[in-house]
Amino acid sequence: MKDTKVVQLADRMPRIQKQSGKKPGKKKENRRLVLYLSVLFLLVLVVVYFRSPFSNVSGVHIKGSHYMSKEAAMKIAGITYETSYFLINPADAEQKLQQQPTVAKAKVSKRFWHQVDIVIEEYKTAGYVEREGKLVPVLGNGRMLGALPDRKLPVSAPLLANMEEEAVLKDLAGELDRMPAGIFRSISEIHLEPKPSDPLRIRLYMNEGYQVMATVRDLANKMEPYPLILQNIKPGEHVLIHLEMGAYIERIGAEGKKNEG
Description:
Cell division protein that may be involved in stabilizing or promoting the assembly of the division complex. By secondary structure, the chain is an alpha/beta fold. Helix content is 38%, strand content 24%. It has 8 helices and 11 strands.
């Protein structure tokens, strides 16, 4: 009996070893199958995500634009809230924006979470002229924009009066564009007051309450002494500042200040 049992156990050993040798292969195949299914599942998730509203732009932030509304800027840049965040090409959007007459430079950037930032650098507004009862912005490059729907100024800049000739207006705009910001902000109005010896003579009305006689030619450089001239004027003193050929102060009476010219 003992010998018979030993033989039967021995007969089973190869079969057991053979069966046990198959198990590692099956486990490896199972792991591989799980890996394939996981990758497939992730791919499906990615496809579903990109085709769903969750991948769209969730916010657009615009800075520096005075003449272009947020909606207009988004339309020009080709960006909507239905646009996939990952399909936005910042360089392409910047190029489209910079083709606009008011835009000197545009920067488009993307950030977390699905946010788009648009920073616009506009050409300087040199002033405003009146045409048919409406104000028309004039840029520093001499280009005139469309008339404003109301008399509300989007950017602080002087009113330019009696400027009918386009060439004169363009030259003046170029000078104002080059003028230091501090002096430019002091100008309230500029009136063209030509005379036989100087058809480009202008009168500047300053926010400080003074008037300046100058000429369009080289105006930016001729206005540079203005801050120093103010230091030599006593409070309450009525003067007319001349910057045509040189720089000097003409003291006048209260009534003469209004009529001097």
